[in-house]
Amino acid sequence: xxxxxxxxxxxxxxxxxxxxxxxxxxxxxxxxxxxxxxxxxxxxxxxxxxxxxxxxxxxxxxxxxxxxxxxxxxxxxxxxxxxxxxxxxxxxxxxxxxxxxxxxxxxxxxxxxxxxxxxxxxxxxxxxxxxxxxxxxxxxxxxxxxxxxxxxxxxxxxxxxxxxxxxxxxxxxxxxxxxxxxxxxxxxxxxxxxxxxxxxxxxxxxxxxxxxxxxxxxxxxxxxxxxxxxxxxxxxxxxxxxxxxxxxxxxxxxxxxxxxxxx
Length: 263
Prior knowledge:
- The chain has a single domain, classed as Rossmann fold, CATH 3.40.50.
- The radius of gyration is 18 Å and the shape is globular.
- The protein has helices at 7-10, 13-23, 33-41, 53-76, 92-96, 109-115, 160-173, 186-190, 241-244, 248-253, and strands at residues 81-85, 102-107, 125-129, 147-151, 178-184, 223-229, 256-262.
- With 263 residues, the protein is α/β, with parallel strands linked by helices.
- The chain contains ten helices and seven strands.
């Protein structure tokens, strides 16, 4: 199936490629057979991403961290409601489902149309084709238990003002929820044109923060819980960066993290 995704929507094909490529190597960090299946059926020039080892490693590490933390939440709250904003072609639901959770995948209409070619909705797994800033999606969420919001590979494409607008809405409607978000530093966002895969699309990075603790500056109701630096995982896979990350300035200013907050 031919795809004509552009700009930010096109970037959903990057983690799909990365998970599929990771699944093919010896001793993979993650294995995603569904990603392999989808990539084979999508008519897109995935070859332009070949050799992008930093993206492949980064996506594999963030997948591992998020899978672990989502499972931890579900094990604690077996009737949880999971809201996955900017879901793209994510397959996490099928790896962590316990048979009880309710899961909502939210993205723009075109990515959701593409998802529907591979996945079918059930009474516990719903897909919503709306912009995350079309806040009518909130009315489509039927809460059944404690809430976990996932924002993977999406917030860096928004401005700081948009981030604030989104967080204020989440605070208003999902008070008490937990949130797992991917963040990059301002220096990485500023140098986005040098990114080994995003620079092959029309998308640009717009937002970054040095520490997850900075999320508390948005509103006093936001509480920082924890964060996990990608460079702390599978250090043998980071090649020459293994030496650079020994330098505190580099590790602090050139890293991606998964951040856990409560809202």
